[in-house]
TrEMBL record:
InterPro entries listed in its UniProt record: TB2_DP1_HVA22
One GO term describing the cellular component: membrane
Classification of source organism: Eukaryota, Fungi, Dikarya, Basidiomycota, Agaricomycotina
This protein's name: Protein YOP1
Transmembrane annotation, as ranges: 50-69, 101-125
Source organism of the structure: Hermanssonia centrifuga
Location in or out of the cell: Membrane
Keywords carried by this UniProt record: Membrane, Transmembrane, Transmembrane helix
Length: 194
């Protein structure tokens, strides 16, 4: 028996193939829930799970060698959400407004935090922008509700903590005259209702 034949029939290789086939099957079941992947598979005759995995690998390779990985990643985080935000503003319902407002708060918070740690992230994680792009898509998708869950678990507690600290006695120390603080608060409330 040749060496190649020995490798193909080795129990570890067979076990790895079985696990890979299992996970590809699970991915195929998950992707079958989305009509776009079913349509793609029917038109191209390429299994949707292979196309999806190929797209992920292509994204990783593209981002690892591309000098424009950061702008492309930020464009991905801005272009489609900006378009859908404008559509949400123009629509009569409020559910899409909440989704996109939540997305922009989380995206802005993430970019703010990223600005402090980008050099370290790129040093320890060279494919950072590929992961960031996948993360941004996760935030955007209504089916994953990534922005809403991250808002509830990270952003909201941070802002609640900051708000609680700033409301503890700030008005009495910053504005000795309470009427000045009330006037400023009334002006801010009026400005938000215009």
């Amino acid at each position: 028996m040749s060496t190649a034949q020995n490798v193909k029939t080795h129990p570890a290789v067979l076990q790895a193939q079985n696990k890979a086939n299992y996970y590809v099957g699970q991915l195929d079941k998950e992707l079958s829930k989305y009509p776009v992947f079913n349509s793609f598979e029917q038109r191209t005759q390429v299994p949707k799970s292979y196309a999806f995995l190929g797209g992920v690998v292509l994204l990783l390779v593209f981002h690892s060698i591309n000098a424009f990985a950061s702008p492309v990643s930020n464009l991905l985080g801005w272009a489609l959400p900006a378009y859908l935000s404008v559509k949400a503003i123009e629509s009569p319902g409020h559910n899409d407004d909440v989704q996109w407002l939540t997305y922009w708060v989380v995206f802005g918070f993430f970019n703010f935090v990223e600005s402090f740690a980008l050099r370290a992230l790129l040093y320890y994680l060279p494919w950072y922008f590929a992961f960031k792009s996948v993360f941004i898509v996760w935030l955007q998708l209504p089916s994953t509700r990534g922005a809403a869950s991250l808002y509830a678990t990270v952003v909201k507690p941070v802002f609640a903590n900051v708000s609680a600290k700033s409301s503890n006695g700030t008005t009495s120390t910053a504005y000795p005259d309470a009427s000045v603080a009330d006037t400023l608060r009334d002006r801010a409330a009026f400005a938000t209702h215009e």
